Amino acid sequence: MAKSDSEAREKVIAIADRLFSERGYKAVMLTEIAAEVGVRHPSLYHHFPKGKEQLYVEVMERNLKHHQLGLEQSITGAQPEIRSQLLAAAEWFLSQPPMDLMRLIHSDMPAINPAAAKRLVDLSYVALMLPIKTILEEAVRRGEIAESRLDVLAGSIVGMIEQLYAVPRASHSDRLEMAHFLINSLLNGLYKR
Predict the structure, then answer these.
(1) pTM value?
(2) Angle at alpha carbon of residue 132, lines to 128 and 85, rounded to 5°
(3) Distance CA 160, CA 165 (A)
């Protein structure tokens, strides 16, 4: 593939990423992507012969792998204790554009081929939930927390942090402060001592 061909493909991916992130799979048309790229709609099939779904799946796979790598690096760079690692994970999530997991699962996945949807759901688990579950498993092993339903807890933590993007007019620092409050409340408990 020629360098200019590769650059054109990356431009398509970048624009598609932004549009899919903003509006979801069903609301984005290939004609819109082509218009923003500055090419005719049929030209996109040169890079993505199977069309919009192929483009969407590639964009999501890249996003999820990016999140997995970033989460793992953030967690590894934190102190080896649950609070530091969860706060590092929250900081990573909030430093990135939102994934909008609810739309991903309930709207985007039903609109694509079931095999591709399963692959993305499985990758979502590995990229987003598993790093958090690993923090919890290691905290159990160190005796920091009691063993519990770690999959449920990991999913709840990711969802809790992800939903901070829905807070109107919140800045990045506001969201980060809310994430710290929520994680500290989770770890400290809400009961009066």
Answers:
(1) 0.89
(2) 125
(3) 10
Q: What is the pLDDT of residues 103-122, one digit of tens each?
A: 989 999 999 999 999 999 99
- The tokens for 164 are 């901070």
State how far the Cα of 83 lies from the Cα of 78, in Å rounded to an integer: 9
Helix axes 52-77, 82-95, angle to 10 degrees: 140
CA-based radius of gyration for the chain: 19
Taken in order of first residue, the domains within the chain and their CATH numbers are 53-188 (1.10.357.10)
> Which H or E element spans position 69?
helix 52-77
CA 62 to mean position of chain CA atoms: 10
Phi, psi torsion values for 49, nearest 5 degrees:
-55, -25
Q: Kindly tell me the burial class for residue 193, based on how many C-beta atoms sit within 10 Å of its own C-beta (0-12, 13-18, 19 or more).
A: exposed
Question: What DSSP letter does each residue of 73-101 carry, written as one string?
Answer: HHHHHS-SSHHHHHHHHHHHHHHS----H
Q: Which of 23, 145, 148 is nearest to 83 (CA)?
A: 145
Structure tokens at 114: 């079931």
Contact 133, 50 (CB under 8 A): no
Q: Taking the CB of residue 52, how many other CB atoms lie within 10 A of it?
A: 19
| Interior angle at CA 26, CA 158 and CA 175, nearest 5 | 30
